[in-house]
Amino acid sequence: MKLFLLISIFLLFNPSAQSDNYSPSHSCSEPWDRNDQYQVENFKECIEDFVDEMQDQSSEHIEAANDAVSDWNSFANGW
Q: What are the pLDDT digits (tens) for 7-47?
C-alpha cells in the first residue's frame, strides 16, 4: 500500500511521467490576410475548439486516473 501511495504521489507531481509520447497539435490554418475579419474569426474559432477538446480529454484522463486509484483503495482496504 505504501509503495502504491508513493508511486501515485510521484506520478501526480511529475508531469513527464504522466505525458504521452505523442503530443497533439491543432490543424488550424493561420489567415494569410490579418485584416480579413472572416478568416481571423475562423482561425480563432478553430483554436478555441481545439483547446476545448484538449481540456475535455484532459478531464477524462484525470477522472480515469482517480477512478483507478479508488479501485485500488477499495481493493486494498478489503484485505
A: 666 666 665 555 556 788 999 999 999 999 999 999 999 99
State pTM to two decimals.
0.59
Secondary structure of the chain in HEC code, one letter for each residue: CHHHHHHHHHHHHCHHHHCCCCCCCCCCCCCCCCCCHHHHHHHHHHHHHHHHHHHHHHHHHHHHHHHHHHHHHHHHHCC
Determine contact, residues 55/31, Cβ cutoff 8 Å: no
Rounded distance, CA 48 to CA 28, Å? 10
